[in-house]
Amino acid sequence: MDTLLIKQCLFHGSWFVVPFMAWLGWRLRERRGRSLVALLLAGCMVFAWARFVEPQRIRVQETVLTGTGAQARLVLISDLHLGVYKNRAYLQRLADRINTLQADAIVIAGDFTYEPDGEPLERMFAPLETLRKPVYAVLGNHDQQAPGPDVDAELRTALATHGVQVIEGRTVTVRGFGLAGLGDRWAGKDDPGFLAAGPASGPTLVLAHNPDSAIALDPARVALVLAGHTHGGQIRIPWLYRRVIPSQYGFDRGEQFLRTAHGARPRPRVHHRGHGGDRPADAVVQSADHRRAGSAPLASQTMYDARFLPSLADVSARDWDALHDGRNPFVAHAFLHGLESQGCLRRDWGWTPHHLTLWEGDTLVAAAPGYLKDNSHGEFVFDHAWAHAYARYGLDYYPKWLCAVPYSPVTGPRLLAQDAAHRKALLTAVREEVLRLGLSSAHVNFHAEDEDDAFASDWLPRIDVQYHWRNPGHWHDFDSFLADFDHKHRKNIRQERAKVQRAGVVIRTVHGDEATAADLEAMFGFYLRTFQDYGNSPALTLPFLQHLARTMPRQLVMFLADHDGRTVAGALCLRGRDTLYGRYWGAEASLPGLHFETCYYQGIAYCLREGLARFEPGAQGEHKIARGFLPAWVRSRHWIADPEFAGALAHWCDEEGQAVRRYARTLQSHSPFKQQDRA
């Protein structure tokens, strides 16, 4: 019999204890056997407490841990076990409670799931997106088939979608200390070797699922281990407890230390639910008074006239598009102006157009799409920790100026100019505008690599990793693409595609000028459904999609899946000169393999047919590696007006960059291609 079905039957069947308790209470009126009945009733009451009351309680225990060298307030939670026993509503209650705590970051020590069945993980974990602090996590044994179904890849994608950083095998910087992530011990993923290459300065805290992972750590390098797995002593039965606790070394709860030949080794602090703690929050950065500059005439450079425009309607499409080579559709006037004219950018959502243009007389010579931002929504370069640091000093991080394509984590030109001198003039004008308006900072997100030279050293660099498909030149069809895979991954892809074919799904490739009104409405409906499923507010509108079909007819590409006579899923892409960009997907039917076929394999096949060299399917998603999308760098630059904040954040960016590079090297080892193809 299916073990999952057995667990579900036992779980839901436990409600019968309620009428049984009522019957026992009624039997207490009788003298005969009253002692036995009372004993049974007491046992049932304990069971009812353990089954219905205790697991739903959210308690916060605050503890001060000294001697770590780190100064921060962390919320530690672990062993959520969403699935058979808990659901999304519980997670939302937990997130709401955490948002009431004063904290610098939230750490989750694994076991997100327990036999999840039915509900997509991205929807199940949507409440995590409501958390207001940076969230870091590792996975647990129940997330990786030890025991339970292996949901590793799907879970990582779901967590990334909701802003949770899975940090297994790498170190990130939090308030000046290193936070390193160890994979699960039972899954054999807790090798601490990467810590040896970590930063030498500053304390390191380790986040792990299994507290036994602490045994292999060097106490001279690791100040503290935060872990879960034992549920923090949630159930403590005398005599039996130590025998069944899932720790080889007896870790259970609270702050513990182990004496070894190396000295005192930190034992991890563990707890099941929302957990506030640690030390008072000292400064992440030191700052002098942050005075806003008064209004003053802009003097970018004497040879140029710098104008900031409230709308792209103020410049002609011909003049704007003459500044770039047309390879990237996202910086086209039609796309950017369409966002404004078709209701996708709203001031109350934090987007106020403030585009920079440089003129020589009546001639437009350079430009940068820009926006005044009241938040960091829709940017995909996360700077929430910076905003929190400003707030702790009573300073305003918002508004800031952002050069980017709204809602689009897509690399492309941002400094639209024909030569280096004009690009540098743009950046000079940006700095002067920041000072004139008294803004905290300026940011250029997802800029092209060849724009790096335009930025002076005071523009702080940040990097991250996406997953891109690149044709090395000898792939001419899907079979030649698969021929370069190792056997295991090639077999998996063929099986995934075969499932879609057996289900009778037919995929249509539809360009903007080929799309019917029904096609556009269906694609927009899928887009809305995805955002609604995850509890997010959709920014794009149906008129914007119709606008793209009219103004960019061959650059709009949709893959629409038909099943049983109706369109059940779709992926929306934009096509550049040599690159396909995947942006949105949605479905109203759950069919095996449909997501991978629509979002990935159809795009690869399209690139092979059309001779496109690259396919960028969007941000996040380590699961893309197994399907031929390998790690690729994305870049951003940041100019901070306050010099002392800028100095502190420069160190922060440097440490983050080192951690991302180590992470990328780890990812490279997971390439699905044959060994000779990895060289």
Spell out the blueprint of helices and strands.
Elements: H1 3-13, H2 17-27, H3 34-53, E1 74-77, E2 82-83, H4 88-98, E3 105-109, E4 113-114, H5 121-124, E5 135-138, H6 152-161, E6 164-166, E7 171-174, E8 177-181, E9 204-207, E10 222-227, H7 241-244, E11 256-260, E12 263-267, E13 269-270, E14 305-309, H8 317-321, H9 333-341, E15 351-353, E16 355-360, E17 363-368, E18 370-373, H10 384-392, E19 400-403, E20 416-417, H11 420-437, E21 441-445, E22 460-470, H12 478-483, H13 487-502, E23 506-511, H14 517-533, H15 542-551, E24 556-563, E25 566-575, E26 579-587, H16 594-610, E27 614-616, E28 630-640, H17 643-668, H18 675-678
Parallel strand pairs: 1-3, 2-4, 3-5, 5-6, 8-9, 9-10, 10-13, 19-21, 26-27
Antiparallel strand pairs: 7-8, 11-12, 14-16, 15-18, 16-17, 17-20, 18-19, 21-28, 22-27, 22-28, 23-24, 24-25, 25-26
How would you briefly describe this protein structure?
The chain contains 18 helices and 28 strands. It is of the alpha/beta class.
